[in-house]
Amino acid sequence: MKAHLTRRYQFSASHRLHSEHFDERQNREIYGKCNNPHGHGHNYKLEVTVSGEPNPETGMVCNLADLDSFVEREIMLNLQFSNLNEVEIFRNKVPTTENLSRELFHLLREQFRLAKVEKVRIEETMMNSFEYAGGRELGAL
Amino acid sequence: MVYLTRRAEFSASHYYHNPKLSAEENLRIFGKCNNPHGHGHNYTLEVTVAGEVDERSGFVVDLKRLKELMSREVIDGLDHRHLNKEVPEFRDKIPTTENLAIAIWDRLKGKLDGARLHRVRLYETDDLFVDVYGEA
Predict the structure, then answer these.
(1) What is the ipTM of this complex?
(2) Residue B131 falls in which region: left (phi positive, over 0), alpha (psi -120 to 50) or beta
(3) Does the structure show a pLDDT above 60 at B91?
(4) Are A129 and B56 inside 8 Å of each other by CB?
(5) Alpha carbon of B78 to those of B34, B67, B72, B86: distances in Å?
(6) In chain A, what are the domain boundaries?
(7) Tell me, what's the pLDDT at A12?
């Protein structure tokens, strides 16, 4: 039977929400404090959920060490203590946590081969979190 | 489709009592929660909305407006209140966490701009929570 496994990571980064689709006044109205030109930061919590049949020999959906090293190499090295506005994936995109969830999901889904990546969940603060599962409905539970 | 969850907290008191039942039955079913003087909880509410990301703003919804909606429709009327005595939904209904989550769903439904209400999760304590998806 398929099992789902979720691993949690943390990184700290800064960002500024500002869209070239809007003028200065509109940007201030839409993004409020998040439009501060000097940026601000968060301690992001990233949850990656993978699924699969547990391997009969190891009992694992995938080896956590493999997932950890992939996340470290492909995500943490780029995002830990970064300014998200300067990261390649946000060259033409506002670094909202909605967009960050989508980008990290697609990176993991397309490049991590050892289990199926089902979902990415990111806590921006204790009070806000975002989930993306490739656009599919999460349904109940 | 991106799912966004906003959390809020409120504190309220309540007790469980069904006037159609005898005092003995109320005590048997509700135990300590039947104490007529009430008791209280620090509730944590999580509201999850679903929607497509606006490609210009990068937002599913404006979080500030969601926060204001939750404050106006839910928190302002429940925080530091006695649910049985001061909240209209519980005039004739027992303010269990199940019924409170349903009442919060009903207060929020249809009031979101550009996103769909997906889930209301209400924690009564860290170890107990109820999820409502608006299903019949």
Answers:
(1) 0.83
(2) beta
(3) yes
(4) no
(5) 20, 15, 10, 8
(6) 3-132
(7) 97
* Identity of the residue in B2, B56, B59 whose CB atom sits nearest the CB atom of A132: B2
A35, A17 Cβ separation under 8 angstroms: yes
Q: What is the DSSP letter of B52?
A: P
Which residues in chain B are contacts of A93 at CB distance < 8 A?
A: 58
Q: Give the count of beta carbons closer than 10 Å to the beta carbon of residue A125.
A: 13
Q: Does domain A3-132 have CATH number 3.30.479.10?
A: yes
Q: Which domains does chain B have, with CATH numbers?
A: 2-132 (3.30.479.10)
- Is-contact B94 B25, C-beta < 8 A? no
DSSP letters spanning A59-77: --SS-HHHHHHHHIIIIIH
CB-CB under 8 Å, B59 with A131? no
B25, B45, B125 from B5: Cα distances, Å? 39, 10, 19
pLDDT of A106 over the 70 cut: yes
> Measured between alpha carbons, how far is A85 from A99 in angstroms, rounded to an integer?
12
Residue A79 CA to residue A90 CA, distance in Å, equals 11
Helix or strand run (H / E) with residue A31: helix A24-31
Tell me the per-residue pLDDT of B102-125, one tens digit each, with 9 for 90 and over. 999 999 999 998 899 999 999 999
The arithmetic mean of pLDDT across residues A33-49, rounded, is 95
Gap from A136 CA to chain B (nearest CA, Å): 7
pTM given for the model:
0.88
